[in-house]
Amino acid sequence: MAAVLGIETSCDDTAAAVVIDGALASSVVSSQPVHIQYGGVVPELASRDHQRLIVPVVRQALREAGVAYEDLDAVSVTHGPGLAGSLLVGLSYAKGLAWGLDVPLVGVNHLEGHLYSLFLGGQEPSLPFLCMIVSGGHTQIVKVTEDFGYETLGRTRDDAAGEAFDKVGKLLGLPYPGGPEIDRRAPAGDASFVRFPRTHLKGVDFSFSGIKTAVLYYLNEFSDEERVAHLEVHLDDLCASFQAAVVEMLVRGLARAVKQTGIKEIGLVGGVSANSGLRSALDRMAVKDRWTVHVPEMRYCMDNAAMIAAAGYRKLQAGRVSPLSLTAQPALKL
Ligand code: KG4
Ligand code: ZN
């Protein structure tokens, strides 16, 4: 039996999970409601909460998996990208645990973790495949040629797609994070109410700062009272119009990557992969252009440690373990 603990503390979720012989045995995520009142993640508060939560969250993950600390064969942990103070809490804890138990430490790139959420049950993608990683911090399309072999085909030049959702959510007066709120409202709205501009760069790169500014300019056309009245009637329509534009940009980028590579095996991961509009658009492409689309279960779209444990398990099998000198790398690339 090989039991691997996964730890994820790169942003504002404190998470731990256990994978035993490749199968997920437990997954615990404790999110931090403290940030809601600030409309975004406050890094200092995030690291303080990670310190408070890391021990109970790991204990619960072990208990739910029915394993003791001594049963662990490796400790895998996110070491970047993310907030330095947040990463350090999980990484320091993981190093201490690995050293104390005398088992290997396995550093996992957070983006690699999202990618391995495709391997948490369901039909796994076959190699090579294209993976679109869309989260609050990243938007990129990667060609996966082999286990841990990636080639980035394109990425956002400015905001990440999730960041655009959250910023526009804020402009529309929605609670943080705006992504799920906009998605909840969009199906009830008219997506053709406003045609927000779609930015299409050359190749497979993205840009989402233009659409965010377009929403801002649109709302600035109104006086304060008018805006409140307009949002009261048309909030769902604006959510639908914005979401349709973002989805169109993402799908267009993916379609170009498919054309460029000839690969129609597609994975969609990261927080924004939970978006209903994006999922349906990819389902349509699956029928229309015969793409084979893989998306993680909803609970593994947003940050979690199951994906870190899954990636950690595979890295351990491949002998890709890390030294205890592993550092937190806030800007780590795939
Ligand atoms: O992967 P994730 O949990 O954290 C990062 O690594 O960034 O992604 C969080 C992002 C947030 O921007 C959130 O608004 C967005 O994912 N998100 C969504 C939805 N659910 C989460 N965006 C659009 N529609 C959703 N249903
Ligand atoms: Zn993430």
Topology:
Elements lengths: L2 E6 L4 E8 L2 E9 L11 H23 L8 E7 L3 H18 L3 E5 H7 L12 E6 L4 E8 L2 E7 L5 H11 L6 H8 L23 H12 L3 H38 L3 E5 L6 H13 L3 E3 L11 H12 L17
Parallel strand pairs: 1-4, 4-5, 6-9, 9-10
Antiparallel strand pairs: 1-2, 2-3, 6-7, 7-8
Helix pairs in contact: 1-2, 3-9, 4-5, 4-6, 4-7, 6-7, 7-8
The protein binds 5'-O-[(R)-(carboxyoxy)(hydroxy)phosphoryl]adenosine (KG4) and zinc ion (ZN).
Protein described:
This protein is α/β, with parallel strands linked by helices. Helices cover about 45% and strands about 20% of the residues. It is built from nine helices and ten strands. It has helices at about 45-65, 85-100, 110-115, 160-170, 180-185, 210-220, 225-260, 275-290, 305-315; strands at about 5-10, 15-20, 25-30, 75-80, 105-110, 130-135, 140-145, 150-155, 265-270, 290-295. The chain has a five-stranded mixed beta sheet with strand order 3-2-1-4-5, sandwiched between helices. Strands 8-7-6-9-10 form a five-stranded mixed beta sheet. Helix 1 runs parallel beside helix 2 (about 85-100) and helix 4 (about 160-170) packs parallel to helix 6. It is globular and about 65 Å long. The two termini are about 30 Å apart. The relative contact order is 0.19. The model has no long low-confidence stretch (mean pLDDT about 95). Zinc ion binds near residues 114 and 270.
